[in-house]
Each structure stands twice: as C-alpha cells, then as structure tokens.
Amino acid sequence: MTGSLALCVDRLSVEFRTRSGLVRALDNVTFSVRKGETIALVGESGSGKSVTAYAIMGILDPAGRVTSGQAMFDEIDLLSASPKQLAAIRGRRIAMIFQNPRSALNPIRPVGRQIADVLMRHRELPTRAARLQAIEMLRAVGITDPARRASAYPFELSGGMCQRVMIAIALAAKPSLLIADEPTTGLDVTTQAVIMDLIADLATELGMATIFITHDLALASQRAARIVVMHAGHVVENAPTTELFVQPRHPYTAELIAATPDSAANLDDLAAIAGSLPDLRRPDLPACRYLERCSRKTEQCAQTLPQAVLGPEHIVACWNPIPVQAPLKRAIGAP
Amino acid sequence: MTVLLDLGHVSKFFPAGGRNQLARLRRRLSGGPEKLPKVYAVDNVSFVINKGETVGLVGESGCGKSTLVRALTRLLDVSDGSIKLGARELALKPARVFARDRDRARIQMVFQDAGDSINPRFTAFDAIADPLRRLRRARGKALKEQVEAAASQCGLPPVLLSRFPHQLSGGQRARVGIARAIAVKPDLLVLDEPTAALDVSVQVVILRLLQQLKRELSMSYLFVSHDLSVVRLLCDRVLVMYLGKIVESGPARAVFDRPWHPYTQALVAAVPRFGGEAMERLRLKGEPRSPIDPDPNVCRFYGRCPISASDCKTRAPALRRFGSRYVACHFAEEFVVERIKSGP
User: DSSP code of B246?
Assistant: First the structure.
C-alpha cells in the first residue's frame, strides 16, 4: 500500500490484566489509512475495534498495555511518543468521536463552552472569539438556533444533537485524522444519514482521513472505501469495499454479510453465525481465533495465522479462503 | 380477524413548563385560567392490532413512539381517546390502578437493552419470577416451574438462572428480558427495540426466537424500532409516526418497497444498504417542527418536506385510505398514481 499514509498501524498487540487472567485483546493488528481516505473497522462487539482506537489515541484503560507494534502518524510512533508529544497531536491533529455522546460530553458544562475549550486550547483563540466560533461550529453541524443551544447542557439535548456537538468538538481543531467510534449507534436512520453525510462532507472539505468504527456492515459498505474486518482481536480481512462485498474471502466476513438484515427477502434467508467469540483469556487460544466457529478449517489453522495477500489491496488471514468462483447466496449490490 | 387492541383518537399532551419555575408558580397563584403550553407527544392516533398480528411502529426519536407505547401498555395515562383491549375500555383506568388490574398480564413489554432494564441485583431467575409473583401470585414450586418453563422457551439453560445480569452475555440478557415478558402469557407483547443492543450474529437468533414464540403462544406483537430492515423482516403491518401523528400505514412490504408519504420515502432512503452508494439519497433538512402547541392547520412535516406546498401550511392533511394503506399527505395521489404507472 503506497501513497501518502495518514496512519499506519503495524502489528499492534494489546493485553489487559484482569483478575481472571490476561486478556489478549489485540494480536498483531495491522492496517493503514491513506490521507483523505475513509476506512471502516467492522466486527462484533468484543472484536477489538474500540481497543484499537483507544490504543492509537493512547487512552487505554490503565489495565491495558501495548505489548508490541507501532502506529505511525507523520513520522511519529503514537505508541511510544511522550505524553507531551501526544498532547500536541491529540485533539489537534487526531480527533475522536466517542460511542456514547451523552457520557462522553461533560455533563456539567454547557456544550458551547466545551467546543470553545478545544478552540482555546488547540487553536489558541481568545475566549470571546472562541465562544463565537463555537456557535458557528454548532451551526455548521446543523444545530438550529445555535446561539441558544450553546448554553444548553448535554442532558437538555437529544441524542442526535449531542452527537453533533461531539462532532463539532472533534472537528473544531481541523484534524487530519478522525477516529469515529460508532458515531451513529443509537441514532435514528434519518439522523444517522445526516450525521454520516456531515462527517463525509467535512472530511472532504478538510482532506481528513477517517477511521470509522461500526458493527453495521451495510453502513460501512456505503461510507468507506476500504473495510477492515476484525474478529477476536485479529484482522481477518482487509479489502476495498466493493471487492469485499462481491467476493468475501474469509469465512467470517461471508457469515457477517449473510447475517446482516438488508434486502433479505425474509428471516429464513438470514444466517446466524455459529458459536461466539472465543474467551481471550484462554491460554490455549488457537492461532486462528475463528477456528472453533469455522466451517472451512484445516489442520494448519491451529498452528499459525497466515496473512495471505490475494491482490494488491486484499489481505485475508486464512489458510483456506473461500474460492473466488463460489458465488454468494446473496449477491451484494443487487437491488 | 379479531381485533385485540383498538386505539381510538388517543392523545397525550404534556405541559411544557417554561424554564422559569417561579413565573409558573406566580401565574398559578394569581388565579385565573392557567394556559400552559403543551407538548403534543401523541396527537389523535387511531389504529388496531389484530390477534396474531405483528405490527411495526417506526419513526425517529422524539416522534412519540415511546409515549404511545407507554400509553397503550397503560404505564401512562392518556389525555384523550380510548384504548380497548377486546371489549374492555382501559383508557379510563389510571395507570397506577391498572398496575394491579387482572388484565395487566395481558399486555407485556420487552424493553430496550435488557442490560439496562433488568434490575442488576436480581438474578435471571428473580427477574423472570417478578411478574409471576406480582401478577399471578405464583409461589414456591409452581413459581419455579413457570420460571423454568419460560426460560426454556426462550432458550435459556437452567444453569444461567442463578446469574446476575452482568454475568450474562448480551444475547442471554435479551432472552431474560423476553422470558420475563412471556412468563405471564400475555396476549400482546410490545417490543421496544429488542435487538438494538445486539450484534448482527445474535440479532438473527433473537428475531427467530421471537417469531417462534409468537407461533407457539399465539401472541400479537407491537414491534417498535427505528431499524427498518428488522421491522420489514418481522412485521405484517407497519405504522409510520411523525411528530405525534401517524403519517402512513399499510402492509410492511408494500410500505417499504413503495413508500408514499414523503417522510416514509426519506426514512426508507436513509436505511443503509449494501452497495447503496449509487442510490439517489433523499435527505431531510433541519429539525422537526416544534411539538409544543403545533398549529393544527399546518402539516407536521411542513418545512422538512421536499414538497412543502402552500396547501400544506393552511390545511393539515388527514390520514386517507387507499386500499389497504393509509397516507396523510395532500399529494398522496400523485405518488400513488405515479407509482402505479411506473409499475412495482
């Protein structure tokens, strides 16, 4: 993958120490984002999507530890950078939108102030200008009557509006990389579409790269140029969106697609995915963590995890990927 | 088909207090008729749910879905209208009294995100036993049997019954939430976004479970969701709500394949689809109109609607019937005719 990269995550591993044992939450996670590109990290809950984002941002829970890997952002390895270096990058050049806006916002500070805080800290605006700019930001993210809303507390705003405020905070400093962790979970489809449009428009305008974390494959397919599928702390497949949907190669990707309700004619056409995520505390975790749920397993699967390169942009971690010829039951892209 | 639940002209208004509590108090103390502004959360809504039918209720947050659901499950008193369960009128019973009513068990609810709605200090057993204890007065061995029966119907192994919610996975918690609701054998089960908190892999399993339970227990469902692709899978009929009013209703498939009301069109267009980038997107601009004392002569969708003609702000459209479907739009004919011409 050439071209100028906004972020390159290389063999990132993260462990959590818990009372019940060591949780190997991420194992050699590798992916990259080009400048201005939007990619999606998808997977079930517990697959390590958010942990990846937190590790990159350096905001892992104290119990978590990065055991190996690099996250290169403009010649700086975010994982080994000093707190001072990170403070200059976070919020200013890399911003994050969190999953639950209501709990991510400060409950006892008016939302306008919270946006102004970012402007004062990162754009060094004087207080008055920052306040006015904050109102403009609220207007830019589509909040009606922004001057009045700026003095509202998060509890006075709807979920959609809180999310807009989060976006305004994240984009206040015009970052070059945005990590959006489930930005529209819990919002209505109409609001979701508007919020996603908003992020996309601002991304184009600012030339911002976006890592979009979601469990909604259909949404990811619409919004991202490339999709990185995660399962139990592994990246199992990484491919351009159309390629991934037309021809998923990892069995897990195929099952995930088949389980997503979309244009499926009825409930019987949807396939449930067998089993559940393996317990990441197990000492005998197989090399391929999908092994126990997989219908295409071979003897090699328990030994090592392959990184098969199937095309210039298509990587799959599987010994026995689905052959290209096999047409999927539900052709994607069909009306 | 027999009608199970019949809602006639149900309305629910909430007083919209100004921020200034003192001014409100002064106004009240100074006597005279107090005219407080009102939030029209549910405004003159009528529909029926037949026996064995699954009805979907969709609309964005703030449209009054939850208020409507709380009114018809009798957790909330209505301002106006009638709610008939079979032949019995429930609207006049205060919600507090209805909690001890013999018909309380007939309408049960599965709440959004069982992780939040189950008492964290109750084991799965206690959670399921609670309604049985209160509404069926079940005790001892009979109670245990009924809890276990409900759990096994929902695919919960007995070993999990002694666990607390935080010790259960999302899918298991969803099962507890469902088991708790079906334990008292209701006629109507109201499901408020039952799968919103679940992964797709688990969602399919829970949806199948719901379908199977409906067959086994011959219940009716009111399925509240904003996930249209799920509503479409499960529902026979769908009601689309916007700012306290029903703007469109009809057979689920027909409504989603050929939405007639401009709001439904926008709603359907907003659902993410695989490879949907080629689709021309219909976007709603701005915020919904204020639900506080809305002008009765203006269409609720006016301003956000791509049509927004002059007629729309002088005369509110009524819900009109077109075959098996109902649409509240002055311009419904144009869509109906256009769609019929262009074929399905």
Answer: E
Cα atoms in the 13 Å half-sphere on the side-chain side of A60: 22
Q: What is the signed CA dihedral for B179, B184, B188, B194, rounded to 10 degrees?
A: -20
Rounded Cα distance between B153 and B189, Å, is 15
Cβ(B163)–Cβ(B124) below 8 Å: yes
Closest CA to B289 of B36, B58, B43, B35: B43
How many whole angstroms separate alpha carbon B80 and alpha carbon B131? 29
Among A20, A149, A188, A221, which would you mutate to test the B interface (most chain B Cβ atoms within 10 Å of its Cβ)?
A188
Subunit contact B200:A259, Cβ cutoff 8 A: yes
Name residues whose C-beta falls within 8 Å of residue A126's C-beta, 6 or more positions apart in sequence.
A120
- Asked if A97 and A179 count as a contact pair (C-beta separation under 8 A), the reply is yes
Question: What's the average pLDDT block by block, 10 residues per block, for chain A (335 residues)?
Answer: 79 92 92 93 90 92 92 91 90 89 90 94 92 90 85 87 89 91 81 85 90 91 93 93 90 89 72 82 86 86 79 86 65 42
Residues of A in contact with B196 (CB under 8 A): 186
Residues 163-222, chain A: which have Cβ within 8 Å of B?
186-194, 197, 215-219, 221-222
**Cβ neighbours of A152 in B, within 8 Å:** none
Strands A308-309 and A315-316: antiparallel
Residue numbers in A near B228 (CB within 8 A): 189
